[in-house]
Amino acid sequence: MAQKxxxxxxxxxxxxxxxxxPSLNQAQVPVAQETPEELLEEARRxxxxxxxxxxxxxxxxxVEPASRFEA
Amino acid sequence: xxxxxxxxxxxxxxxxAKLRAKEFSAQELTKAFCDRLxxxxxRYNALALSYREQAIQQAKDVDSEIKRERFRGPLQGxxxxxxxxxxAAGGPTTWGAKPYAGQVFDEDAxxxxxxxxxxxxxxxxxxxxxxxxxxxxxxxxxxxxxPGINPWDRTRWSGGSSSGSGSxxxxxLVPFALGSETSGSILTPAAFCGITxxxxxxxxxxxxxxxxxxWTMDKIGPMCRSAEDCxxxxxxxxxxxxxxxxxxxxxxxxxxxxxxxxxxxxIGYSPVDFEGWADPAARPSFAQxxxxxxxxxxxxxxxxxxxxxxxxxxxxxxxxEGAAVFEELITSGKVDGLADAKQIAGxxxxxxxxxxxxxxxxxxxxxxxxxxxxxxxNVDVLITPARAGAASxxxxxxxxxxxxxxxxxxxxxLHDLIPAGxxxxxxxxxxxxxxxxxxxxxxxxVGRPYSENTLLAYGREYQNRTDWHKRRxxxx
Lengths: 71, 476
Description:
The complex is a heterodimer. Chain A is built from 2 helices and 1 strand. Chain A is mainly alpha-helical. The longest helix of chain A has 20 residues, at about 35-55. Chain A is elongated, with a radius of gyration of 23 Å. The two termini of chain B are about 20 Å apart. Chain B is built from 15 helices and 14 strands. Chain B is globular and about 60 Å long. The longest helix of chain B is centred in the C-terminal third of the chain and has 24 residues, at about 355-380. In chain B, helix 5 (about 165-170) packs parallel to helix 6 and helix 10 crosses helix 12 (about 340-350). At the A-B interface, strand 1, helix 1 and helix 2 of A face strand 1, strand 3, helix 10, helix 12 and helix 13 of B.
């Protein structure tokens, strides 16, 4: 469904965004205190914590992964 | 035509009645909302892209129909905004993220098409947290348009990820908006902005043409001024769609008059949600709301969620599916163009989640669903604070928790109902119920799959008895 944007479309998009976003509201994303590498390590640690938490739930073999997504 | 401010805060039903009575034309109404959206939208970082020209053209067609007394239903001629996660032909669909700033689709999302068929008028795309927050973000500024600003207090966040939808409805920039929820993205901005939001049952509303974050958890729903408006919009957007593999193939008809009597229903709640988990400043409003619901004549019983790791489950499932969705973005390095450094790291780490962990999470999800089926044998509706308190400050990191002087409660209650309800695909309705420190707070109702009419009947009755949903933010 996606298509490449034309140069005209690109220009329109940029103009629209620029016109509608005054500098007042362009709050900078606060600079993370951690480096990207440290953030990646923290994200990995979070995944491991999740894994450890899930490991504590007893599961019988017959429990299959959810294949319908409404209860 | 100069409109009184009250028009910008009128409900869909009120606006449609005035259009049919020819108090003003659809073109006049659309122009007025487009002006307001373009003027005030940037004040709240709510507007991604104006659709003024297309909107006015659509409004002309509506006027022509109304002139010939061809009435199409309650949404005919009603302006609205759509979260920029939904494809709309004719302009960029950015998903709130810089790497997709120039992305254009050549067809509309199914929900946009359905609203067009109902003759609602798309006035603009509304801002959102980049990639609907996939990977996990630290700051509200994680968005192409900047942080979602709350119309009730510009130092506060509007909530996410449907940030612009929440603030635009609250500030009277559109009569209603479409948002999406994977785990909290409709309920949170609705609660923080003081509007009514409905998260439909998984599969009831087509997601064709919407950005995917989690194929098994994404839902699209209305964000409005009232429960009744949510019912009207849901009826228009729900229904079978063969283009959405998750479509349940069910329709929805908003029929509050046929809802079961409240006296025949049972409401479940947990005192610890209202007295322990809730922010102390919000407790009086939550307690008052519970009292109003007690007055409906329903049986009210105490319940609690089973002890399952809802947070770890949603985190694992959404991160794993989100990383799969955005694999090309991540491996190409374009992910580094996102605004939030934590989110970038979260998406990268998501690619490393082992299949066994994802499958384990999905197996435990089966247990969550079983537990809800048991819970709903004896209870029809659950009620809990939608969020524990009011909107956080724009500068607050979102992953550090809110500092509180209250001790952590010993029991869970329904505290994790947002992740739990999303894992089970349950519908939820967020209702404004008062203020804490001059900021809106809200309760949410959660029911069985496809029980939207029951939730909406409760919501409508609650809003007949209170006026929190009619409050307007200052200086809008």
